[in-house]
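New to this. Help decode the following:
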Amino acid sequence: MHKRYLLWLVLLCSLTLLPAIALNWILLKNEGNVEAMSFAASDWQQQTHGITYSPTMGNNGFFKTLRLNDRLPEVNTVVMGASTAFTIDNDMLPLGWKLYNYSQSGSPLRASIAQAEYLAEHAPQIRQHIIMLDWVIDFIYQPGEIPPVNLAPADRNAIPAPTTHSPLDTLKEAVSYPRMAKLWQVLRS
């Protein structure tokens, strides 16, 4: 009797946790090398002119820089700022302004200033720099120095080889509390 009860209990717990473990496993496998995934996404977008997003949400700076460098010959206006500026497009601007929206998730004002300074020095064809002042999300009030920035084209051959983990290490990470808590937050939203 106790064995059967224990078996059913383990089976129910396993069936409950198995989908969460599988989702975390997939997410871990896709977390990989951000640079390599960004190159692949950028190449696909360049070829198809399709709509895509950075392979890892919240870490889209490398992808956006790749696309910026591909588009620089075609544009004369760049939008910089946090994700609140994602919706700005060419239809909102005067005729003749050819836009690239370089806004990024969580990009503070000081990063946008550094990006604009870099483009002013290295891309003189960019005549309009639109920098979002995100006072609502506190970025204009954050203290700090303007960081150095380099928006030069990335070298595909300089990408480090991705680190590989054993299946057991991946499973341990997939069932860890931080991963489960993060997955639960995503599923609840």
